[in-house]
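Consortium newsletter contribution from the modelling node. Members have asked for a concrete example of what our holo predictions look like. Here is one, prepared for the coenzyme A complex that several groups have been discussing at recent meetings.
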Amino acid sequence: MKPGEAIKEKKIRGKKVIFRVPTQNDWKQLWENYNLVITGTEFMGMETPVKPEDTKKWISKTLDSLKEKKLVIVSAEVDGRLVGNCDITKEELEVKKHTGHLGVYVIAGYRNMGIGTELIKIAMEEAKKIGIEVVTLDVVAENKTARDIYKKCGFKIVGEIEKGYKRKSGYQDMIVMMKHL
Ligand SMILES: CC(C)(COP(=O)(O)OP(=O)(O)OC[C@H]1O[C@@H](n2cnc3c(N)ncnc32)[C@H](O)[C@@H]1OP(=O)(O)O)[C@@H](O)C(=O)NCCC(=O)NCCS
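And here is the predicted structure:
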């Protein structure tokens, strides 16, 4: 995977969706999208909006890690706009480097079109190529849409951590899921 590389194109509901690796120049859209999702749902790992400079640093570090085959990342582009993203990042511990943690989002207005499912499938195919054998993820227990698509993609629930997330609005239980690639 290389920055900007197109991995797949698919027509979804008459729209051309390009699944591609993001580039450093995409930082602004990635920043806007991430903040839209974290402020629009209570299902993400952050709840305080991220600063533009933090996203610039994050994408730069992410593209370095991509080069070092420490992660895979794929975005979905519709009409020239990024609308979703999925990454799988290898664990750092020596004996866990064959496992990767998955994160995914699609911005409101582009959901329920199959983009999230496609992003996960592509990320898993690419993860295999860099030696990831086991994918893990965690999801807010009430996030039925996400749990359903993970199940559809072959993930199984392996645990539940009560009060695993603590937000300004209170605790949420965390479901842990995994899949062997
Ligand atoms: C979870 C998320 C990534 C899914 O992306 P998406 O592009 O909408 O996913 P898809 O279109 O591929 O699939 C959605 C599926 O959920 C189903 N669905 C939608 N709303 C639903 C609901 N309220 N309850 C149950 N199922 C629902 C759809 O019918 C579809 O299933 P199908 O493919 O069998 O028809 C997206 O909703 C999102 O970004 N949510 C906010 C952030 C988030 O929760 N990220 C995951 C954190 S772990």
